[in-house]
């Protein structure tokens, strides 16, 4: 940021002590510290806003590229009219009971009665 050597900092400290006075120097340094903290906060806020704007611009650029690529793919591979299987994928069962109903659950009258709520068997 600033290129200050130790000798320059010492000269600034001596001049500040003479001009401000040793009694008021701590209060002046505290005020300077508060101003520096506010300046750093403003810079951090600015940097965060700038980063957000850059990210948003990059996302818009990527969306444009994706739209162009999608359009190119859709032109190269058009859907065949009337071919519903090409437009809608079919869902196939992986594992489980057969679809013919042989593994369907029993009706409620064929099931055994559940145990009473107060029955605590271990």
User: What letter string, H or E per element, gives the SSE order?
Assistant: HHH
Strand content: under 5%
| Average pLDDT reading | 81
Largest sheet: none
The 3D shape can be described as: elongated
Annotation field: number of helices: 3
Helix content class: 55-70%
Structural class: mainly alpha
Number of β-strand runs: 0
Calculate the terminal CA-CA distance, rounded to whole Å.
75 Å
The low-confidence parts are none
CA gyration radius, whole angstroms: 38 Å
Describe the model.
The protein has 122 residues and is an all-alpha fold. The protein has helices at 6-20, 25-76, 84-87. The chain is elongated and about 100 Å long. The model has no long low-confidence stretch (mean pLDDT 81).
Could you give a short description of this structure?
With 122 residues, this protein is mostly helical.
Task: Please outline the helices and strands.
Elements: H1 6-20, H2 25-76, H3 84-87
Features:
122 residues; mainly alpha; 3 helices; 0% strand
């Amino acid at each position: 940021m600033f290129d200050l050597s130790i000798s320059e900092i010492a000269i600034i400290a001596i001049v500040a002590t003479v001009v401000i006075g040793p009694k008021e120097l701590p209060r002046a340094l505290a005020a300077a510290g508060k101003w520096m903290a506010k300046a750093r906060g403003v810079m951090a806020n600015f940097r965060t806003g700038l980063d957000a704007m850059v990210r948003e611009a990059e996302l818009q650029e990527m969306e444009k590229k994706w739209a162009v690529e999608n359009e190119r793919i859709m032109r190269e591979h058009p859907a065949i009219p009337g071919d519903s299987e090409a437009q809608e994928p079919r869902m196939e069962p992986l594992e489980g009971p057969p679809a013919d109903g042989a593994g369907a659950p029993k009706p409620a009258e064929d099931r055994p009665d559940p145990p009473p709520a107060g029955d605590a068997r271990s």
